[in-house]
Amino acid sequence: MTLLELNNLTAGYGQTPVLFNVDMSINQGDMVGLLGRNGVGKTTLLRSIIGLNKLTKGSLFFNNKDITKAPAYKRSRQGIAYIPQGREIIPYLSVLDNLKLGTSASGKSSKRIPSEIFEFFPMLKEHLPRQGGLLSGGQQQQLAIARGLMCNPKIMLLDEPTEGIQPSIVQEIEDTLKRINQEKGITVIVVEQKIDFIRQLAKSFFIMDKGAIVAKGTTRELTDSLVHRYLTV
C-alpha cells in the first residue's frame, strides 16, 4: 500500500527553486534512504513533505489524502514526524518536557509518556529531569527521535541522524530505527551521508542530484558505480 506519494513536486525558498519535478512513491512499512551530495535538495524535500516549504508546483498525497495545501501542524497530526538535522531539541527544557512537546505536535491532550519510549530509549528514563542541552550529541539525537515517536506517527522523516555522533551510538540508532520500523510498522525516510549506514539500514533508496531524483531501487542495487557517479566528492 502506498503511504506517501509525491507528484511533479517543485519547491524552493522565495523565488529560488531547489526541487524540480520530484516524483516519489513510498510504501507503508518501508525503510528508505535518501542520498545525495550536499546542497542537492534532500533537506528541502523533507521540509516540503512536512509542510515547512511551500510548493510552487505538484501534489502530495499521504495515506490516500491530498495534503498539498495542508499546513505543517495538520500534517503532523495526520502522522508525519520530522526529526531535523541538528536535532533542535529545546536545550533549557528537561528531557521530560522535550518529550511532551512531541505529544503537543499530535494534537492530543495527554502528556503521559508511553512505556515503549523507554523500551526503545532506556537511557532517557535516567535523565528525565535533566536539561536537554546537557545531554551528549548522541543522547540528544535519541531524544529527538523519541520526541518524534510521541505523536504516534505513521512515517518518520530523519535528516542526517548520525551527524557528529560516535560510532557506538550510531549503531544504537540504527538498531532502534530497525526496531521502530519492524515492531511498530512505522515507515522511515532517512537522509544520510554515510553510505554504509544506509546499506545496513534501508530496504530501498533514492539518490538526488540538482534537485531531482536521478536513481532509485532496492538497497542491493545501490552499486559502487552509482555511489561514485552521484555521491563521491
Total separate domains = 1
Give the C-alpha Rg: 17 Å
* Class from helix and strand fractions: alpha/beta
What's the CATH H-level superfamily name? Answer: P-loop containing nucleotide triphosphate hydrolases
CATH architecture: 3-Layer(aba) Sandwich
Instruction: Please state roughly what percent of the residues sit in beta strands, choosing from under 5%, 5-15%, 15-25%, 25-35%, 35-45% or over 45%.
Output: 25-35%
First-to-last CA distance: 36 Å
Indicate the percent of residues in helices: 25-40%
H/E topology pattern: EEEHEEHEHHHHEHEHEEH
Note the quaternary state here: single chain
Q: What is the tally of beta strands?
A: 10
Mean pLDDT: 94
- Gross morphology is globular
CATH fold-level topology: Rossmann fold
The CATH class label is: Alpha Beta
Protein name: Urea ABC transporter ATP-binding subunit UrtE
Organism: Waterburya agarophytonicola KI4
Keywords: Amino-acid transport, ATP-binding, Nucleotide-binding, Transport
Family: Belongs to the ABC transporter superfamily.
